[in-house]
């Protein structure tokens, strides 16, 4: 019932045109919210794909760094082997020189002849390390 009771209807506070407008704007706001949610969902999926791409990229970089690190460690180990081989060759040569000097001094005392000393020195100078000796070739060959 209306306040004035002319037609026997109850006035609920709005015209039918106003209700249609409210419903239309409500539908538009729902559509807007749905499209915003859809857009945010798409952005989220895009960001997730970017994160996956970056993650794969970083994993690849880590693998390369590990390979580089392993190569560097291998190179350092190889260099150390070369140093050890060089040191052992030098030490071996120094021992041979000391032995030769001792032999020359002993032979000089025994013989007292310059010809024998030069012959001994010449024979020692032509001696080589046997091919099956560990110092005859580097360990990495």
Description:
The protein has 141 residues and is an all-alpha fold. The protein has one domain. The protein is built from two helices and no strands. α1 packs antiparallel against α2. The protein is rod-shaped, with a radius of gyration of 49 Å.
Unreliable segments of 5+ consecutive residues: none
Distance between the termini: 110 Å
Number of domains: 1
Number of strands: 0
Helix content: over 70%
Structural class: mainly alpha
The percent range for strand residues is: under 5%
Global geometry: rod-shaped
Helix/strand order, N-terminal first: HH
> Can you give the mean pLDDT?
73
Largest pleated sheet: none
Query: What is the overall number of helices?
Result: 2
Radius of gyration: 49 Å
Features:
mainly alpha; 141 residues; coiled coil
Give a summary of the structure in a few sentences:
With 141 residues, this protein is an all-alpha fold.
Strand-helix topology:
Blueprint: H1 16-111, H2 114-126
Helix pairs in contact: 1-2
């Amino acid at each position: 019932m209306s306040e004035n009771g002319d037609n026997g209807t109850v006035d609920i506070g709005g015209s039918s045109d106003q209700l249609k407008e409210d419903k239309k704007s409500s539908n538009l706001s729902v559509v807007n919210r749905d499209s915003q949610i859809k857009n945010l969902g798409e952005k989220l999926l895009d960001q997730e794909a970017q994160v996956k791409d970056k993650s794969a990229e970083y994993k690849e970089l880590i693998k390369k760094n590990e390979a580089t690190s392993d190569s560097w460690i291998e190179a350092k180990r190889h260099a150390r082997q070369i140093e050890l081989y060089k040191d052992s060759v030098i030490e071996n040569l120094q021992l041979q020189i000391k032995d030769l000097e001792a032999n020359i001094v002993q032979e000089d005392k025994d013989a007292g002849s310059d010809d024998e000393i030069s012959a001994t020195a010449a024979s020692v100078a032509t001696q080589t390390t046997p091919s099956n000796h560990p110092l005859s070739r580097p360990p990495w060959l």
